[in-house]
Amino acid sequence: PFGEFIRLDQVGGHTIPASSYTVRYGSTIVTFSNAYLNTLSNGTYYYTMVFTGGTSDRIRLDINRPQQTTRPPAPTPTPAPPQHPRRMPHTGDGLFSFAPLILMALAVVGVSGEGLRRSKKRKEYEKYIGKWD
After folding, report:
1. Which helix (H) or strand (E) element contains residue 101?
2. Helix H segments across 23-98?
3. Beta-bridge partner residues of 27
4. Which segments within 1-133 are labelled E, that is strand?
5. What DSSP designation does 84 have?
6. What is the pTM (predicted TM-score) of this model?
7. pLDDT digits (tens, 9 = 90+) for 69-119
8. Cα–Cα separations (whole angstroms), residue 122 to 70, 75, 86, 104, 113
9. Phi, psi at residue 82, to the nearest 5°?
10. Is pLDDT at 133 greater than 60 in this prediction?
11. What is the pLDDT of residues 19-75, one digit of tens each?
């Protein structure tokens, strides 16, 4: 009963200071202060109310706050692209790197042209003179 309430004890622990809770009438209602609740970590706690005529049954209190997650570190910002596009490094290759290809192409055209010219001359010769030996 409310009028016989003396104190609140934690089972297997100590007496809870009166400043950590309030008691009111109506089957003896105990309300813990926020300051006291903030000192408790997640878990289950048991209490008994001490009255002039004895103690109450165990009272169970479960604290289950969401675990605070640590924020992942902020991503490292990527450097901004340069304002001016990068120029390719000078390697020494230029217009003259194609010179051998151009010379080979000219040689193929020249040799083919000379072959065609000789073939045409041979046909003309055979037509008028006879077989070329």
Report:
1. helix 99-128
2. 34-37
3. none
4. 5-10, 15-16, 21-24, 29-32, 43-51, 54-55, 59-63
5. S
6. 0.48
7. 777 777 777 777 667 666 766 666 666 667 777 888 889 888 888 888 888
8. 94, 81, 60, 27, 14
9. -60, 150
10. no
11. 999 988 877 888 899 899 999 989 999 999 989 988 888 989 998 888 777 777 777
Coil vs helix vs strand at 18: helix
Q: Can you tell me whether residue 107 is helix, strand or coil?
A: helix
Write out the two tokens for 48: 């008994």
* SS3 assignment, position 14: coil
The amino acid at 66:
P
Give residue 130's pLDDT: 64
Rounded distance, CA 92 to CA 81, Å?
A: 27
Pick from 61, 8, 11: which is nearest to 39 by CA? 61
Greatest extent of the chain over all pairs of C-alpha atoms, in Å = 150
Cα dihedral 21/62/55/20 (nearest 10): -10
